[in-house]
Amino acid sequence: MTQSTEVKIMNLSQDTVGVLKNFASINPNIVMREGNIVKTISEARNILAEADISEDIPHEFGIYDLNEFLNVVGLFEEPVLQFDNTKRVRIADARKKQSVHYFFSDPSVLTTPQKDITMPSIDVSFVLTSDTLNQLRRASATLGVSDLVVDNKEGKVYARVTDLKDPTSNSYQFEIEDAVVTGGTFELVYNMANLKLIPGDYQVDVSQKFISNFKHQTLNVKYWVALEKTSKFNQ
């Protein structure tokens, strides 16, 4: 007598699909681990992202092409994922008689976070609003520059987009209000291309260890973004 295989069900919400679409911009593949936390890391390992989702992932599986997987999910109005402990998932619609069998990838061949990041002591802290981030991206594209510099002068903190390699570069600057600085001057340098963030307001904490944490203020999503090597801290 053949023993039946237990099928585990996972509904996939639009909020989670949105998170995964964002994560696909950081790394095209992902390993979904058991539980309700999803993580990804860029190939260069300078961006790590983590999100708490509402769904409970029944067991670990790897996806080589996350955008392709999401496009398959997008074929269904109410996607339901059915797992039966094989190397594939059955994606079906809650209301219609259609389905797709999608095969997993071996997690060992995918680029995944190997350990959690413990944020060191925080030396600079500030808020970047959604409007500010959008304006920075617009200014960066308009001026054709890719460096985002956050620094402090005469007790005030500023952010600007510019080209640090060109002393005659045009730049766009604004003052960041209510920033908290533990002491000394600094020049934090980011590559705008590394700010692959879900839209929203962010609490930004920065350490002299050249790591920064961007925490979404309404969603359970956070990013760790490495500073560029040209960044400076002076006590």
Overview of the molecule:
This protein is mainly beta. The protein folds into two domains: 8-109, Proliferating Cell Nuclear Antigen; 124-234, Proliferating Cell Nuclear Antigen, CATH 3.70.10. It is built from three helices and 18 strands. It has helices at residues 14-26, 66-73, 130-143, and strands at 8-11, 30-32, 35-41, 47-57, 61-63, 79-83, 88-93, 99-103, 124-128, 147-153, 156-162, 172-176, 180-181, 185-191, 202-207, 211-216, 221-226, 232-234. A seven-stranded antiparallel β-sheet has the order 3-4-17-16-15-9-13. A five-stranded antiparallel β-sheet has the order 12-11-10-14-18. Strands 1-6-7-8 form a four-stranded antiparallel β-sheet, with helices on one face. The longest helix has 14 residues, at 130-143.
